[in-house]
Amino acid sequence: MRNILAVCTKELYTYFVSPIAYFVIIVFSALSGFIFSVWLITYSGKIPGADVMQVVFGNLAIILLFFTPVLTMKLFAEERKSGTIELLLTSPITDAQVVLGKFLASWTLVLIMLGFTLLFPFLTSRFGPLDIGVLCSGYLGLILISSCFLAFGLLMSSMSKNQIVAALTSFGFFLTLWVIGILSNKSGFIGEMLSYLSFLDHYNDFARGVIKLNDVIYYLSFLCVCLFSTFKSIESSKWR
C-alpha cells in the first residue's frame, strides 16, 4: 500500500505542477456550473429539485466523458516517449502497484472535480426539497462511470507512446459505448446485447435514483478488466 500511495503522490504532484490539473478543474467546473445554472433558472419552481439534479447528473457524465482522457493520456504514454518507463519498471515496486498508483492519482483528481459540484444540491434545495436517494445514487453512478473512463484511458496510455492517440482512442471508445444504447431499441438478442454494453443505459438508473446490482457489477467488471489488461500490457512491455 505504501508503494501505491508513493506512485499516487508522485502523479498528483505531476498533475499540479503542470497546467493540466488546473485547466481541467476550472473548465469542468465552468461547464458544469453553466449547465446547472441554465437548468436551475429555467425550471426553478416548475419541477422538483430532484428532477433538476437528474438532468445535471446526466450532463456531468457527458462532460466527464470528454475530460477523463485528458487526465489519463500522459500517465504511461509520456513515460514511454521519454524512456523513463524502463526506470519505473525496474524500481523495487511491482507492476500492479504502478498501475494502481497511477489510477488512484487520476481518480483522486476526478473526486476533487466532483467535490466542487456538491454546491449544486445546496443551491437546488433553496427552491424545493431534494431526494437524498437521488443524490447518493447519482454521485455513486458518476464515481463508477468515471472510474471506468479512467481505467480504459489508462489502458490506452499504456499501449501508446503518443498522448494524443491515447486520448482520441479513449474518447472514441467511450463515445461508442455511450451512443450504442440508441441502437438498443431493436428487439431480440442484438437489442439486449447492445443495451447491456451501453454505458448510458446502465447510468440512467443511477441518475434517476435507482441502484441496481447488475449496473454496479457491469461497471466494476469493466473497471477490473481494464486495470488487469493495463497490468498485462505493462508486464509484456518488459519483453519488447
Q: Which characteristics define this entry?
A:
240 residues; mainly alpha; 80% helix
Brief description of this entry?
The chain has 240 residues and is mostly helical.
Number of strands: 0
Q: How many DSSP H or I helices?
A: 12
Task: Provide mean pLDDT, rounded.
Answer: 81
What is the CA-based Rg, rounded?
A: 19 Å
How would you classify the quaternary structure?
single chain
Q: List the uncertain runs.
A: none
> What structural class do you assign from the helix and strand content?
mainly alpha
End-to-end Cα distance: 29 Å
| Shape annotation | globular
| Proportion of residues in extended strands | under 5%
The percentage helix is over 70%
